UniProtKB/TrEMBL annotation:
<dbReference type="InterPro" id="IPR011009">
    <property type="entry name" value="Kinase-like_dom_sf"/>
</dbReference>
<keyword id="KW-0418">Kinase</keyword>
<keyword id="KW-0808">Transferase</keyword>
<keyword id="KW-0547">Nucleotide-binding</keyword>
<feature type="domain" description="Protein kinase">
    <location>
        <begin position="35"/>
        <end position="281"/>
    </location>
</feature>
<dbReference type="GO" id="GO:0005524">
    <property type="term" value="F:ATP binding"/>
</dbReference>
<dbReference type="GO" id="GO:0004674">
    <property type="term" value="F:protein serine/threonine kinase activity"/>
</dbReference>
<keyword id="KW-0067">ATP-binding</keyword>
<dbReference type="Pfam" id="PF00069">
    <property type="entry name" value="Pkinase"/>
</dbReference>
<keyword id="KW-0723">Serine/threonine-protein kinase</keyword>
<dbReference type="InterPro" id="IPR000719">
    <property type="entry name" value="Prot_kinase_dom"/>
</dbReference>
<protein>
    <submittedName>
        <fullName>Ribosomal protein S6 kinase</fullName>
    </submittedName>
</protein>
Length: 337
């Protein structure tokens, strides 16, 4: 199917009611300030709400980059699903609307930056900080599994922090919702792939807990547990499963090892209570962290860098339009009511 086909179906499937407004009038409710990131199908901008000047993030999906009707349906299904999610440790989608060229996804702004940036800046975290994050992530994963979602994207770049130092998961591109297990296709990121995925044995919710093990290791040690000079070397290291530590305490090592257990049936995480009762986390105030009544031990980080410094090819690479944008305009004006 040629690029641009299936546009009519895309327009019809975008969430409607309060989440869609004809002619893109909702765009006038927000003032774009600056680009803060890029995605495969558009850009991410920091904006201000016109009515109260509050911060908000706008992710733009360019419709001309939609390759097929199936892809359009997948995008719309994911947006519909994200609008149903409301959790204190997940970046909540506030609104979805469209105009003739783009779909706009509005979400909360996390001024503390990403966990990835924090690790890069400070080399590694203290165990107290890592515990705090691990508990929030465990609660978020347990919630996602309860709504039949395998997250499959638990990397430091997808963990954002708000101004109070509370984490929020984002990046649901790889998420699997209501799929039968075991799932046999390869998804995710090479350094985080589990042995059962590499051996084509299929994955289930235990894959998320394996990824949590990789992330906890990265927080404490400053690097990923398995990272070779080449992709082949990395995959060999994952299958070998040898883990070396420099900073982690014995209790932390035990926790990480239990999450990186090669056999999914023996892996920590099948029951959240088992995670809570592990010696590394058993003395932590889970309820207080869950209801956000415990102050965050995380160091707040405010981004001050010019976004163009890490998006140098933004205009030419992202904003180039399709071969016949006028045709797309006509289609959307006819299909949107």
């Amino acid at each position: 199917m040629e690029r641009g086909e299936g546009i009519e179906e895309f327009a019809e499937a975008i969430p409607r009611g309060d989440t869609a407004m004809p002619n893109g009038n909702k765009l006038e409710l927000y003032l774009p300030i600056t680009v803060i990131g890029l995605s495969p199908m558009g850009d991410v901008r920091f904006c201000r709400c016109i009515d109260d000047n509050s911060p908000i993030v706008m992710k733009t999906i360019h419709k001309y980059l939609v390759q097929s009707e199936d892809e359009a349906r997948r995008i719309c299904d994911r947006l519909n699903w994200l609008l149903t999610i409301n959790h204190p440790f997940i970046l909540n989608t506030r609104d979805v609307f469209q105009d003739e060229k783009n779909v706009y996804v509005m979400s909360d702004f996390c001024s503390g930056g990403s966990l990835h940036s924090m690790i890069q800046t400070f080399s590694h975290l203290t165990e107290n900080q890592a515990k705090y994050i691990a508990i929030q992530l465990s609660i978020a994963l347990d919630y996602l599994h309860s709504v039949s979602c395998l997250y499959a994207s638990l990397i430091a770049e997808n963990v954002l922090m708000d101004k109070e130092g509370v984490i929020h998961l984002t990046g649901f591109t790889n998420a699997l919702v209501n799929v039968p297990f075991p799932y046999y296709k390869m998804i995710g990121y090479i350094e985080h792939m589990s042995p059962e995925m590499l051996l084509n044995k299929g994955i289930d919710y235990s894959y998320d807990w394996y990824m949590l093990g990789c992330l906890v290791y990265e927080m404490i040690e400053g690097i990923l547990p398995f990272h070779g000079d080449t992709a082949k070397m990395t995959l060999q290291m994952i299958l070998l499963g040898k883990i070396e530590y420099t900073y982690a305490s014995p209790e932390a090592q035990s926790f990480i090892n239990a999450l990186l257990e090669p056999q999914p049936s023996k892996r920590l995480g099948s029951n959240l209570n088992d995670v809570k009762n592990h010696p590394w986390l058993a003395d932590m105030p889970w309820d207080n962290i869950s209801n956000r009544s415990t102050p965050s031990p995380l160091i707040r980080m405010n981004k001050t860098a010019d976004p163009t410094s890490f998006c140098p090819h933004y205009k030419e690479d992202i904003l180039e339009e399709g071969d016949n944008p006028q045709l797309y305009n006509e289609v959307f004006f006819n299909e949107l009511h």
